[in-house]
Amino acid sequence: MSMKHTKPTATDDGSADKAKGHVKEVIGSAKAKLGHLVGNESLEAKGRAQNADGKKDRLKGEIKEDIDNAKAKVKAGVAVVKDKIDEIRHR
C-alpha cells in the first residue's frame, strides 16, 4: 500500500473547516433550541449532534491553521540558519 502525497485542496484549508464548522454549530444550536421549545426531542437531539459535529470541524480547522503557522515559522527559522551558515562560510 503506497501513500501518495497530494496537493492541498480548498477542503484542506483550515479557514474553510472553521467556517463550515461555525455554520454547523449555529444551525445545530438553533435546531436544538427550537426542538426544546416545541418539545420535539428528536429535533433537539439532531441539533445537538449537528452542533457537536460543527465544533469538531471548527477545531479541526483551528488545528490545521496552527500546523500551517508552525510550518511557516520552522521554514523561516531554517532560512535564517542557512543564511548564517553561508555568512560564516564566506568570511
Question: What's the short story on this structure?
Answer:
By secondary structure, the protein is mainly α.
Note down, in words, how this protein is organized.
The chain is mainly α and 91 residues long. It has one domain (14-89). Helices cover 81% and strands 0% of the residues. The protein contains two helices and no strands. The protein has helices spanning 14-38, 41-89. The model has no long low-confidence stretch (mean pLDDT 89).
Q: Output the radius of gyration.
A: 22 Å
Tell me the strand percentage band: under 5%
The helix count comes to 2
**What gross morphology would you assign?**
rod-shaped
Elements, N to C (H/E) = HH
The largest sheet, given as strand count, sense and whether it forms a barrel, is: none
Keywords for this entry:
91 residues, rod-shaped
Write the layout of secondary structure elements.
Elements: H1 14-38, H2 41-89
Helix pairs in contact: 1-2
